[in-house]
Specification:
115 residues; mainly beta; 4-stranded antiparallel beta sheet
Length: 115
C-alpha cells in the first residue's frame, strides 16, 4: 500500500501548515484499524516521533509540539492530517507518515520554518 504525503513548504515562524498522508489503495476497513504516526527527520539526528493517531484511543504528541500540532484522520478519504500552528524554526525537517500494522512509510515532505 503506497502512502502519499504532501503539504510541506516554507513558512515564517508563527505560521501554519497542514500535512496530509493518504493511503488511496488501502481498504477503508483496514484504515479504521491502522495506527498512523508522523515522524520528523533533521539532518544529523535520529528520526523523531512527533504525533500519533492510534486506531483506537486518543492522539499523542511529543512535548515540543503539544498544544501547537493536531493530528486527525478522515476515514472516508483514508487520510491523516497534521495541522501545525505557531511553527518554530526548530520544527524544520522532513516529515514522514508511518502506518501500522505493515510499517508503511510515506515519501517525506519538507517543512522549513524561517525565523
Amino acid at each position: 500500500v503506497q502512502l502519499q504525503a504532501s503539504g510541506g513548504g516554507l513558512v515564517q515562524a508563527g505560521g501554519s501548515l497542514r500535512l496530509s498522508c493518504r493511503a488511496p489503495r488501502m481498504i477503508t476497513s483496514v484504515f479504521w484499524t491502522t495506527d498512523v504516526d508522523w515522524h520528523r527527520q533533521v539532518p544529523g539526528k535520529q528520526r523523531e516521533l512527533v504525533a500519533r493517531s492510534p486506531a483506537s484511543g486518543t492522539p499523542d504528541y511529543v512535548d515540543s509540539v503539544r498544544g501547537r500540532f493536531t493530528i486527525s484522520r478522515d476515514s472516508s478519504r483514508k487520510t491523516v492530517y497534521l495541522q501545525m500552528n505557531s511553527l518554530k524554526p526548530e520544527d524544520t525537517g522532513v516529515y514522514y507518515c508511518n502506518m501500522n500494522p505493515g510499517n508503511r512509510w510515506g515519501q517525506g515532505t519538507q517543512v522549513t520554518v524561517s525565523s
